[in-house]
Specification:
Its main location: endoplasmic reticulum. The chain crosses the membrane at residues 429-453, 465-484, 490-509. It is a multi-pass membrane protein. GO terms for molecular function: transferase activity. One of its GO terms (biological process) is protein N-linked glycosylation. The chain is of the alpha+beta class. It has four domains: 2-71, no CATH class; 87-207, Immunoglobulin-like, CATH 2.60.40; 211-394; 434-520. The protein has helices at residues 2-16, 23-39, 54-71, 315-318, 370-378, 427-451, 462-483, 487-528, and strands at residues 41-43, 47-49, 87-91, 95-96, 102-109, 115-116, 121-131, 138-141, 147-148, 150-151, 157-160, 163-164, 170-171, 176-186, 201-207, 211-222, 227-233, 249-251, 255-265, 272-273, 277-284, 290-294, 296-299, 307-313, 327-336, 344-352, 358-362. It is flat and about 150 Å long. The termini are far apart.
């Protein structure tokens, strides 16, 4: 009931706003707006909604915005709660790519039915603030005022966020999350429409860039003798091939492998980057079983305020994670972040067992588990292996769309049956029923044959011809219905044929009655004579 009450009152506000009433007449309805706002719930401290649903919320928002425009003001209503905004700013994706420092905006009605361009609205930019993701602290970047937006076309605004450094070069802010303060106002100060929610707006922005891997170093240590077995400086983006028969790095029991690398901005290597997701994917080349490990974030050596990423693997401690399945593994680095234009996918090498994006040859002691043994025997279903250990948390939860899970068995076909057809009667019963329906017609034909048909008394009038033609057409329609048509289509045709047949039949009967009366009068007069 409350939802219907809110919807009804919202419709009343919309209707009243179209009646061109005075402010005095609209004053009581403005008081009702306060009761609307009191019934609303807050979301994230800056948005109102009604728990009755999106339809009720949008309907109330439309009614309030129309009433404010008709009234010509907010009448001391607090603007902050009216986050059911009359107008809002829409950014193209809210992201800026490196080399494209121009921000493009449109001022669009909340309902999408009006676009306010540079010829009617002035849009000004305040300060640009960097957002610390963990603490949400804002730090000013550049000047406090960035001036007014320029007109890109009749409906769009644009503003360049690039700055001029000492070398007179366009320079974007470093990749990260930002908010830009915006304000809008009418160019015509006498405009009666209200712009709500466009004063000191903080527009979220992201400055994107391309990430690049630098300083990737792979080290294999012999833990028992505490000596370094292998020290390789990998080339980012290229696969390393070891000088072995299978081209993979051998990793035996007692060895420890570690990989350390850093991420930087591809366009400015002095700018360090961090990744929200940093994985090492190891995939067995034969069974395509995959296990995913997380990189550990450490402080970068020799670089201030920079982070490095490290991955460690010891076959002796990780044998259960691999289900004791030895062999050559493909090692792939996968890194992604909301600030990266595209993720990093680097096949480093192969290990035996596998290493990062190279191939590794891993050696374990112990028998492979039942799941691995089944895969090796069948080599058909290569879905991901399961691990019974705590290290299962290091696995990716679903199939990898990047590496694949190999061939799978075909699923059984699904057959949909909405309603089983009713059983038909046996053929003998159907024929008996058909003959029973045809007996009256056969009886009529036999009666006509025995008694005779007086066709010489037929009068060729228009009504007689139409009546008999309609009657024959109806009988023909019954036959067609029996063989081809459905009931509703037949009823439609019967209506078209029945109306003229009924009218002409009435005329035929009246003509016959008139003829009989005339004949009786004639016979009576002849008897009197």
């Amino acid at each position: 009931i409350q939802r219907f009450l809110l919807s009804s009152l919202a419709l009343v506000l919309q209707i009243v706003s179209t009646l061109n009433l005075s402010q005095a007449a609209l004053k009581p309805y403005m008081d009702d707006v306060r009761s609307f706002l009191d019934q609303a719930d807050e979301l994230d401290g800056n948005m109102l909604f009604f728990e009755k649903g999106l339809y009720t919320t949008s309907l109330v928002a439309k009614g309030i915005s129309d009433l404010i425009n008709a009234y010509g003001g907010t009448d001391e209503l607090p603007e902050a709660p009216i986050v059911i905004k009359r107008d809002r700013l829409i950014a193209d994706g809210g992201a800026l790519h490196y080399g494209q420092p121009k921000l493009k905006l449109k001022l669009v009605s909340l309902w999408g039915d009006a676009v306010y361009g540079p010829d009617t609205v002035t849009l000004k930019a305040g300060g640009l603030f960097a957002v610390q993701q963990l603490t949400k602290v804002l730090t000013l970047v550049g000047p406090m005022e960035r001036g007014a937006f320029t007109a890109e076309n009749g409906t769009s605004f644009q503003l360049s966020l690039s700055e001029l450094d000492g070398k007179d070069m366009n320079k974007l802010p470093v990749p990260g999350h930002y908010v830009l303060e915006l304000s809008a106002q009418w160019k015509d100060a006498n405009d009666s429409k209200q712009l709500l929610g466009v004063k000191d707006v903080q527009l979220p922005l992201r400055v994107l860039t391309e990430a690049e891997v630098i300083d990737p170093v792979l080290i294999v240590m012999d833990v028992v003798s505490d000596r370094q077995v292998l020290d390789i400086k990998l080339n980012p983006g290229q696969r390393y091939t070891a000088p072995t028969a299978h081209g993979a790095v051998d990793l035996d029991l007692g060895h420890q492998m570690s990989l350390t690398l850093r991420l930087v901005d591809k366009h400015d290597r002095k700018v360090p980057l961090t990744a929200h997701q940093m994985f090492m994917q190891l995939t067995h080349l034969k069974t395509q079983q995959a296990i995913t490990f997380l990189f550990t974030e450490i402080a970068a050596l020799g670089v201030a305020n920079a982070k490095a990423y490290q991955f460690r693997l010891e076959p002796e401690h990780s044998a259960a994670d691999f289900d004791y399945l030895g062999g050559v593994y493909k090692m792939e680095l996968i890194a992604g972040d909301t600030l990266f234009i595209k993720p990093i996918i680097w096949h480093m090498l192969c290990i035996h067992p596998p290493l990062i994006q190279a191939d590794v040859n891993l050696h374990f002691t112990g028998e492979p588990g039942s799941d691995t043994a089944r895969r090796l025997a069948e080599m058909n279903d290569v879905s991901r292996q399961r691990t019974p250990t705590v290290a299962a948390m290091k696995r990716s939860l679903g199939p990898s769309s990047l590496i694949g899970t190999g061939p799978t068995k075909a699923k059984p076909e699904i057959e949909h049956m909405f309603r089983a057809p009713e059983r038909r009667a046996p053929s003998p019963i159907a024929w008996v029923f058909t003959i029973a329906c045809a007996v009256p017609l056969l009886g009529l034909l036999v009666a006509w044959t025995v008694l005779g048909v007086n066709v010489w008394n037929f009068r060729f009038r228009l009504s007689n011809i139409l009546f008999h033609a309609g009657l024959i057409a109806i009988f023909a329609l019954y036959f067609i219905y029996w063989c081809y048509l459905d009931m509703f289509t037949t009823l439609g045709y019967l209506t078209v044929l029945g109306i003229p047949t009924f009218l002409t039949g009435n005329c035929v009967l009246r003509a016959q009655i008139a003829a009989r009366r005339a004949a009786s009068i004639t016979s009576a007069e002849s008897k009197k004579k």
